[in-house]
């Protein structure tokens, strides 16, 4: 697997915490000599800390942290041009940035929270895909690359109190399926990984910082760690080119 990832340039959205951060470390550990990582998120200070930690464990990996809000089309469209030349030939895009705001019955969800969920989880992911696909298609060998979308079990099994978030993740699932079909004659792989419960900052963000409410969600379940998901992301990316891990649901034992 390490040989297949050798020298790759990997762009991860939402790399400042949770699953995205773990993916950065997992890729770096798998191919520590010559990988290039573009780590993006809104919190640039946190990304700089992630970059410094990676430098300690995998000094051969080149890391380029970028402050990027995926929900802002103007930031996404200027991203590629702003990259240093050595980071421009992106091979793998991990569309991971996402969030849930407000767990409540649909009529009670605030308009601004509906907007931030759709503009991040859906439009942001589409914006990123549109920005990076031309790089994949322009390759002299006829086009190649991996798009790895982090969906959710919520996109398959909607639940009460999560209607808007579930709708965003169902949209991700639909977009991913359609994109895979559009690219069927190319060497571009389109992969979706749908986590169940994973303990990350996500759990706190969804209850506006209320840690007690966040803890209750995990009653009776030992949630996954972000590393559990990162291992699967890197496994999918490291398969030989003809193998597409198209669609994977991963949840902790005992999650209903
Ligand atoms: P975290 O809250 O730990 O990470 C979310 C990441 O997304 C952060 O790095 C955050 O960085 C970034 N982010 C949020 N909004 C934006 C934005 N507008 N632009 C750029 N970056 C943004 O949560 P997880 O690691 O758990 O979440 C990662 C993905 O996994 C999400 O898509 C989530 O929906 C999905 N998921 C999570 C599950 C879970 O139980 N945790 C279950 C199923 C799916 P910053 O704040 O610095 O911008």
Automatic annotation (TrEMBL):
Pfam families: adh_short (PF00106). InterPro entries: NAD(P)-bd_dom_sf (IPR036291), Sc_DH/Rdtase_CS (IPR020904), SDR_fam (IPR002347). PROSITE patterns: ADH_SHORT. GO terms for molecular function: oxidoreductase activity, acting on the CH-OH group of donors, NAD or NADP as acceptor. It comes from the Eukaryota. Keywords: NADP, Oxidoreductase. Gene3D superfamilies: NAD(P)-binding Rossmann-like Domain. Belongs to the short-chain dehydrogenases/reductases (SDR) family. This is Putative 3-oxoacyl-reductase.
